[in-house]
Amino acid sequence: MLKYKLKRRDFIWKASQLALGLSIIGREVKLLSSSATEVIDKSVAATISSALNPEQINIIRSLTSIMIPTDENPGAKEAGIAEYIVQILQFQGTEAIQKTQQVLGFIDLRAMKLFGKPYNQLSETKQKQIVNWLATDRQLSPFWTQLRTMTVLRFYSLPIGYKPVGLPGPTIDQGGILNVSCS
């Protein structure tokens, strides 16, 4: 009898990869000609490019990089947070993408009104002014809250985010936080 031990984390990871692959590429999964990871990576790249245009993705990349900047440690840009957010928007559907496009257009209009340039052409200082406005505007609160939440949760769920601050990372396979007794 063959003993096969599969950790929960590995099972969940593989199951989520499979679900992602099937939902993105549907019936065109060709596991015989390439690995599932290759198929998923190519498919994700295609959906990211179709959801938002490069200027809009750069606005999201800038917003997330201002939230979690690169210093002596990698930041949101190096962790690919903007691409992750665009991928999540793609799964949320057309309405979420359209609302995001509207807000990103509004951010660009605000930059044009205040500084005479589109957001992506502003200096970092002026981009931070726009972010401060965005973070405090009540009408844009749903967008800001979702963007901030996805950015922070995704960043600190990755080794690039949790290792530099000394966190151990996920411990679900060991039953939770180390050195805690239930008695």
What does this structure look like?
The chain is mostly helical. It has a domain at 32-158. Helices cover 64% and strands 0% of the residues. The chain is built from nine helices and no strands. The chain has helices at residues 8-25, 36-51, 54-67, 76-79, 81-92, 94-115, 124-136, 141-155, 159-162. The longest helix is centred in the middle third of the chain and has 22 residues, at 94-115. The radius of gyration is 20 Å and the shape is globular.
**Count of helical segments?**
9
The Rg value, from CA coordinates, equals 20 Å
Largest sheet: none
- What is the H/E order? HHHHHHHHH
Oligomeric organization of the protein chains: single chain
Residues in helix, %: 55-70%
Principal-axes geometry comes out as: globular
| Uncertain runs | 24-43
- What is the residue-averaged pLDDT? 79
Distance between the termini: 37 Å
State which percent range the strand residues make up.
Answer: under 5%
Write the layout of secondary structure elements.
Blueprint: H1 8-25, H2 36-51, H3 54-67, H4 76-79, H5 81-92, H6 94-115, H7 124-136, H8 141-155, H9 159-162
Quick overview:
By secondary structure, the chain is an all-alpha fold.
Features:
9 helices, single chain, 64% helix, 183 residues, mainly alpha, globular
